[in-house]
Amino acid sequence: MPIPKPVARLNRVGLNRVTRRIAPWAPGFGVVVHRGRRSGNTYETPVNVFPTATGVRIALTYGADTDWVRNVVAAGGCQLRTRGRTLTLTAPKVVHDPTLSGTRAFERRVLRALRVEEFLDLTKRPASS
Predict the structure, then answer these.
(1) What DSSP string describes 53-98?
(2) Whether 117 contacts 95, CB under 8 Å
(3) Residue 113 contacts by C-beta under 8 Å, 6 or more apart in sequence?
(4) 53-102 pLDDT tens trace
(5) Measured in whole angstroms, how far is the alpha carbon of residue 27 from the centre of its chain?
(6) What domains lie within the chain, and their CATH numbers?
(7) pLDDT tens-digit map of 33-45
């Protein structure tokens, strides 16, 4: 796992509170809105987002075994607030990609330094007419 779990716990309590306010508007970021598998509570998790031809790719900086990833996979999708929009995403798939395809040059360097090679690919559900 790229970033150790103790750091993830600290971020959840501190940094994520700030990042959740900025991420829905900042380029390359977003906030995943998902429900807890057991609690049913709604959670918001800031993430790094990369657009794909069919939806989005999210860098799993803490690995695929985090609660938010398991919640999204179990639910079959989530909402993503990014660039001032809310997207409905489905068909979550954890992907191991050491080439970091689909990422921008700067983020690719950072992700390589953090040894991130796992992503969550999701399909954007078309807007209903």
Answers:
(1) SSEEEEE-TT-TTSHHHHHHHHHTEEEEEETTEEEEEEEEEEEE-T
(2) no
(3) none
(4) 999 999 999 899 999 999 999 999 999 999 989 999 999 999 999 999 99
(5) 14
(6) 5-124 (2.30.110.10)
(7) 999 999 999 999 9
